[in-house]
Amino acid sequence: MSYILNIETATKNCSVAIAKEGKTIVCNEIAEEGYSHAERLHVFMESVLTEAGITFKDLAAVAVSQGPGSYTGLRIGVSAAKGFCFALSIPLIAVDTLKVLAAQTKVSDGLIIPMIDARRMEVYSAIFSAELENKRETQAEVITENSFENIKEPIYFVGDCAEKCKTVLTKDNFIFLDDIKYPSAREMCALSFAKYAINDTVDVAYFEPYYLKDFMITTPKK
């Protein structure tokens, strides 16, 4: 049996799940205003393993959310994942954070645009089909009333940017799913197993999270 430990720490949600053959067995998570990933992550790891009735030695791989997202949160999650992969000599799987967020959306038509808050009116976003096919790569962008204006089909927005984006994204085909705010390790399980099945892994020694650093340090244009 292929057990995979899934770690999601890219946002305020500290989330850990154990999956067997891509199916979530147990998930432990908490989203707090103040980041508590450093204190909670290892506790959550131990608790999900215990609840699943397995040990670290039973793991076939570790999957981690690769970003974009919180610099500190990503470093905590990736450092923990690397440590276990080194110690256990198992592969590391990197999963797109925005795809994990989009995977919570169950729709049959239109496009899904997951967004993670950056600062002011800036977000990290990507565009996916209802089947989670990538239609536009991850970008760091400033949201205005003209954003996505050329898309005529329904757009489902998910993420923690709803409140600020609703003020400018007001077209009739724009639909905000307010109950989907943060990516979760629960949705990582199927995505990470799909990568594991085709040996789509990353180099444990050299893998770095997707910070979008260049965007973060650039002075916004007025």
Question: Can you give a write-up of this model?
Answer:
Its EC number is 2.3.1.234. It is an enzyme of class 2 (transferase). Keywords: Acyltransferase, Transferase. With 222 residues, the protein is of the alpha/beta class. The protein has six helices and ten strands. The protein has helices at residues 37-52, 71-88, 97-102, 162-165, 185-197, 213-216; strands spanning 3-8, 13-20, 23-31, 59-65, 92-95, 111-119, 122-129, 134-142, 155-159, 174-176. The chain has a five-stranded mixed β-sheet with strand order 3-2-1-4-5, with helices on both faces. Strands 8-7-6-9-10 form a five-stranded mixed β-sheet. Helix 1 (37-52) packs across helix 2 (71-88). The longest helix is centred in the middle third of the chain and has 18 residues, at 71-88. The radius of gyration is 17 Å and the shape is globular. It starts with a strand and ends in a 6-residue tail after the last helix. Mean pLDDT is 93; it is low at 215-222.
Q: Proportion of β residues?
A: 25-35%
Largest sheet: 5 strands, mixed
The N- and C-terminal alpha carbons lie at a distance of 55 Å
Structural class: alpha/beta
- What percentage of residues falls in helices of 4 or more residues? 25-40%
Low-confidence stretches: 215-222
Shape summary: globular
Sequence of secondary-structure elements: EEEHEHEHEEEEHEHH
Secondary structure tally: strands: 10
Measured on Cα atoms, how large is the radius of gyration?
A: 17 Å
In DSSP terms (H or I, runs of 4 or more residues), the helix count works out at 6
Query: What is the typical, i.e. mean, pLDDT?
Result: 93
Kindly report the spatial arrangement of strands forming the biggest sheet: 3-2-1-4-5
